Amino acid sequence: MTSPTRPVIAFPATIGVWWASDTWPMPKAQEVAREIEALGYGSLFLPEVTGKECLTQSAAFLAATDRLVVGTGIANIHARAASAAESGGRTLNALYPGRFVLGLGVSHAPLVEHGFGGVYDKPLATMRTYLDKMASVPEAIEPGAGRPVRLLAALGPKMIELSGTHADGAHPYLVLPEQSRRTRELLGPDKWIVSEQAVVVGGDADEQLQYAHGHLNVYSGLPNYRNSWLRQGFDESDLVRGGSDRLARGLVGMGSVDDAAAVLRAHVDAGADHVVVQVLGADPTADPRPALRTLAEALELG
Questions:
Q1: Could you tell me the residue range of the domain that residue 147 belongs to?
Q2: Is 90 exceeded by the pLDDT of residue 1?
Q3: Which helix (H) or strand (E) holds 195?
């Protein structure tokens, strides 16, 4: 989906990658990014929890690659002042025009209060105030560069609306393709939607389901995601720790590699502009490349 009125993201392909590299030495992580680019994926999105700082990582991945778009998925607004997020994003945009996406999110109360020692209160108002402060940074900071494309971690209708009025679109995480469709309906054609989709490639059905439940374990205890899943048609019986089998099979692409590829395409068919695949393994920072190589063939990338 294209629009002449929105800012450019120079994605070289519709499918990208979501990967947490916190435990990797950066030179080794850069090697992973280079192979992701060589395989034909269009982006590398990275999280920010309590490990590495995401803007520094983004700069390193951009420097190590030629065309790959790098995005934060998601930069925690409680981790830095709004002026720092804005000026850092402008600097990356000045150096790598069209290749950096600044994804922002309010995070979750346990992480903010215990991981960052902050206060988690009124997420929508907090995000709106933060974005207003970013907008107030004078143009003299990185003059002429402009800001990068800005996406919000938006699950509920009010945050999705804010992602359209105060940002350039949304970065839905742990959602069904139907939620990508709903996000497109709420935002209209002129905003970016970059959806995340977890998959398991290889292994038997029991092992795939085990990885899916392990992935959902932490998220199933967070109110933001629990509420999102209820809005998407699941019920309280699905919200056990690690998620029910129905929730796991709904949110994680499993089965054959072609099945995994099909659920990625389903988000695009539903209205997402770009989909980032998160390969599940023994731990969140496992090497994604073996599965990404197999998946790239099924997606006919390159």
A1: 15-299
A2: no
A3: strand 192-199
Cα 97 to chain centroid distance, Å, stands at 20
CA distances in angstroms from 208 to 127, 234, 283, listed in the order given: 36, 21, 13
- Does residue 108 register a pLDDT over 80? no
User: Please, are residues 103 and 74 in contact by the beta-carbon 8 Å criterion?
Assistant: yes
Q: To the nearest whole number, what is the mean pLDDT of the chain?
A: 94
Tokens 């929730």, located at residue: 247
Answer yes or no: is 7 within a domain: no
Characterize the bridge pairing of strands 169-170 and 192-199: parallel
For β-strands 43-46 and 69-72, DSSP reports them as parallel
Number of domains in the chain: 1
What is the rounded CA–CA span in Å between residue 149 and residue 198? Answer: 23
Q: Which pTM was predicted?
A: 0.95
Terminal C-alpha separation, the chain: 21
- What CATH number does the domain containing 115 carry? 3.20.20.30
Residue pLDDT, tens place only, 139-166: 999 999 999 999 999 999 999 999 999 9
